[in-house]
Structure formats: structure tokens, C-alpha cells
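Please describe our next protein:
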Amino acid sequence: MIPENEWLPQAQRLSVGMRMRVRHGRERRLNMTVANERDRWWCYCQACKTGGVLMKEHVLLTAAPIVETVLTLPTDMKPVLGSDFEDTVGRFLASKGMMFPYLPQLWYSVQARRVLLQDDTGEWHGRDLTGKSNAKWLHYAKLHIVGTVGATTVLTEDIFSMYKVRFALRDSPHIGTASTLGAGCSTTAALALKNCTTLVWAYDGDAAGDAGYNSASRRMRVLVPRQLRARPPQGLDPKDMDCADIRELLKGVL
């Protein structure tokens, strides 16, 4: 675990729901992500392959929602398929283990330099394509969980992983797939998941994913006693895996 004095002050300076990339110690690149979630602060360093989590002890399951800033949707969005941006976006998706069929309709904004999609409820999310933004994902609504919730629900950290798991399980539509938009379970997510009978945590196969699973499963245990860890191979997340391997991973725990 990364000592709190190396990351916590930076995380605490962020507004709730925000995350950013910073330098860890004397590293020359912005290798460490720090974040301020509704119920925790956390960090993860890509160079060290480790992180840290500190729960906000004052946050209760019944706490009132915190008012957050709503982002403005770009005004220049155009459908990706059939556009001049199709090849660029396609190559980006391939680099992330993704393909167009896994995802809903994609849009592109030159202004934001992001590919955007609408989730199941019609809310928008935008993924940076430049690799230079402090925020890989922007969420244009006050959300802390995205997807569909079923009696059995598979949970991922990021939206791309959620959609790839959903595609891999397309023959099992009774299994819910959702993303908690990070490694942890916010109050909003906990309330959305409280009626599940089984939660399968398919968080990333790294220290941050393990820490997020441990804290989230502890929080949800009183509501959902049956919780399983579907851990991807070390260093991978579900979107890095072949669909057949995702099914095999989930079959192993279910």
C-alpha cells in the first residue's frame, strides 16, 4: 500500500466525484491516479502497481446525496460509424481490447476530443482519446453506478469492461452487468445493489482492484451475503480479456 502522506492530501483537494493523474514521488510522468469518491479517497500508481484506499468513516448508507457539478455535454457530437473519425476511434478501441459490436452507438466530439456513449438510462459518458487528460472518463450526470442490476450482478470498475462482460454474457441476459465507475462502492451504488442475491466483483487484477473489492464487499455484506471475487489475471481488467476467457472466469466462481 502507498503511504497516505504520498497521495491523500492531493486526493482531499479534489471535489467529490473527481479524479486526476499526478506524479508519485520523483517519477517523471503522471503515473498515479488520485480520486475523491463519495465514500472514500483512493490512489493507484501505474508504475508501482500498488495503491491505497481510505474510507470516509462519516459516510453512512442512508446519507443524503452530495450535490455535485454537472458537466455540459459537447455541442459538436457526430456519430462515429461512417464518419471521418471511424478509423481513429476503431484503432483506439482495439488498443483497449474493445470493438464496435461490444458497445452502444458511439459519438465523437472534436471539441472535447472524446468518444461518447449513452448508457441504459440515457446518460452520457465520454472517454478521452488523447491520453493527455487528467480524467480518462467524464460522466455527464451525477452517477456512481451504470448498467443493469439483476438478482446476480457482475460488477466492473470501468464502463468498457462492463460492456465487454455484457457482450460475453449475451446468452445469459438474466445476469446483470454494472460498473461502479471506479474500485469501490458508493452510497448510490450500494442502494442500487441492495436487492441482489449475488454480487460478482470482476474488478481489475491489481492492488487497487483488490483493495476496492475488499472495502466494497465489506460494505455490502450486510445487504447481500453472497459475494464472489472474479479476479482477472494479474495486471488485466475484463476488457483486456477474450470473451471466452471472461465466460470461463465467471463460470469458475458462479
Q: What stands out?
A: Residues 207-220 form the longest helix (14 residues).
